[in-house]
Target: Pyridoxal 5'-phosphate synthase subunit PdxT
Amino acid sequence: MQAGVIAVQGDVSEHAAAIERAARAHGEAADVVEIRQSGTVPECDVLLMPGGESTAISRLLAREGIDEEIKAHVAAGKPVLATCAGLIVASTDAKDERVETLDILDVTVDRNAFGRQKDSFEAPLDVEGLDSPFPAVFIRAPLIDEIGDGTGAANNAGDVEVLARWDDDPVAVRQGPVFGTSFHPELTADSRIHDLAFFDQVEVSAQ
Ligand code: GLN
Model:
């Protein structure tokens, strides 16, 4: 499996380790490539869009022409896991003109809604499809404040499913091949979110 981690900015190595772990658990090998320029996304089976700073990530994706490649990847039905800033960039509207969203996930997000860096926290989270809580790390996390009817996203992949909520607000969603989380599943040793996003079933049990 060729896995591309969008590496223009953000926590790249953690995602690389998480997809390698998840693949191993499914008897596959993930060949991880870091993406900083156009030309590589078309060779990837799956993509990871890490956390970081969404303004910087969206600007660099557009400058390098990677934005259109990610949209084509999703239009072809290939999976993407977008976490935190990655979720913001994947959304249809980040309510911030500095973020050029990719429109691959029909949600509206509110950047930094969970507070500033000092307000970051970890919480056990019930996630649909997992039989025990997931240790979710929130770092200046975006709030998903509107779930679209599925027609807002350019890929038109149908309904947006809410897979987890924190304080009633959605924090994990899926629309067809695109899985988005407000939190950082790559920052724990638990690879079950990567399992759900890329293998559709969970092999690795909670740590
Ligand atoms: N708040 C950041 C942003 O708006 C995202 C934070 C993160 O990815 N940990 O881009």
About this structure: The CA atoms of residues 74 and 128 lie 23 Å apart.
